[in-house]
Amino acid sequence: MPVRNGGVSFWWQQVGLPSPADRLDGDATCDVAIVGGGLTGLWTAWYLHEADPTLDVRVVEAEFAGFGASGRNGGWLSSELAGSARTYERVAGADGVERLRAALRGTVDEVVGVAAREGIHADVVRSGVLTVARSEAQRQRLDGELTAAQVAERIRVAGAVSGHFDPDCARVHPAKLVSGVARAVRERGVRIHEGTRAVRLEPGAVVTERGTVRAPVVLRCLEGFTAGLAGHRRDWLPMNSAIVVTEPLTPGQWHEIGWSGQELLGDEAHAYCYAQRTADGRIALGGRGVPYRFGSRTDVDGRTQDWTVESLRSTLTSLFPSLRGIGLDHAWCGVLGVPRDWSASVAYDPRTGLGHAGGYVGSGLTATNLAGRTLRDLVLGADTELTRLPWTGHRVRRWEPEPLRWAGVHALYRLYRAADRREDAGLLRTSRIASLADRVAGR
């Protein structure tokens, strides 16, 4: 049976694709206009309205709430740092990095708590994440506390030589989470103008294809779709990530691979993979396909390349040889926002009323909530622990123009894959090729 490809994501196909609602019909005014109906925009609207219910907050979304990465990701509600520790350390020192890490750990509990209070049934299990090393070079980078035998007690990953377990992570169903947050936001009285594409932002106004929303506060929360706005083509690079999901595994297959818990699974490769055991007994596994489309082009309804599907199938059977021949039900892709220094930022200028949050480099499911609470404090003029985190006000240079951008990104991932091949072949240290790739990337 052929693999279903696209259709936004498997997650949305499971719950049912929504039709855009409450399209903007002409000009409007409000107190806060948020551009982007993903989790960054939705959480920001949630916390602003919670702090001040008198605020007229509106969200402008080109498709439907959760159409982008918020409804396509791997379902890792993780405390992983959304960016480079070295970058944040230059701004705020080691203490600042630790404060950001602690805030992200606390945010895992915040999201789980809000979901429980609001009746958002998103298959949430606070199960932790197991990261494995499958070569000596990976073992040195990971510096994990688990031996190969201890890794196998959790999940029998072929070739695993060590591992690290982080309890501060929860598994979620992305579409159930984002649709639940959107529902809760609407119930608070926030209007989400779906099917309304913004084309330009300026102080005091969001210009869309269906009218202009005027507001003293305008917040850009578009993550990987930022490049679609006039004047923002080179701000953040829309990087592609692809996922496949298997048919349901049999009890015997689960027993064979030893994955009896609900922990998430990742590896320490440079071109890394990430996986979850879904609530309905499948494996969803993601990784990098074609990393970038020329000219910062973004979405084609989630469809990914056939060779990417086969590459992910190969990764799956490399991890679990006993699953060779298992059917894949669905494949899709989405874009994440990557700043030039690979580090996220949250910012607001009270003089212009313009703000933004994003650039999570693939670690956004938790960071979106923390960013939303930080934007709330910045907009309301509050000086809090959140507004003093090192990503607040972080500035970074723009990406290079084309064709340098396209050539550089594709060369970057060729280097990472070459480094992985050398390490898998027995190199006893991290490949110098990967170090070169890091310098090219600006990490």
Describe this protein's structure.
The protein is an alpha/beta fold and 443 residues long. The protein has a domain at 8-77 and 174-232 and 341-388: FAD/NAD(P)-binding domain. It contains eleven helices and 21 strands. Strands 1-19-15-18-17-16-6-8-7 form a nine-stranded mixed β-sheet. Strands 10-4-3-14-21-20 form a six-stranded mixed β-sheet. Strands 2-13-12-11 form a four-stranded mixed β-sheet, with no helix packed on it. The radius of gyration is 21 Å and the shape is globular. The two termini are 41 Å apart.
Number of helices: 11
Find the count of extended strands (DSSP E, 2+ residues): 21
Uncertain spans: none
Q: Biggest β-sheet: count, sense, barrel?
A: 9 strands, mixed
- CATH fold name of the domain at 8-77 and 174-232 and 341-388: FAD/NAD(P)-binding domain
Distance between the termini: 41 Å
Give the C-alpha Rg.
21 Å
Overall CATH architecture of the domain at 8-77 and 174-232 and 341-388? 3-Layer(bba) Sandwich
Strand content: 15-25%
General shape: globular
What is the mean pLDDT?
A: 95
Q: Quickly give the structural class.
A: alpha/beta
- Helical content stands at 25-40%
Give the CATH superfamily of the domain at 8-77 and 174-232 and 341-388: FAD/NAD(P)-binding domain
- Strands across the major sheet, in which order? 1-19-15-18-17-16-6-8-7
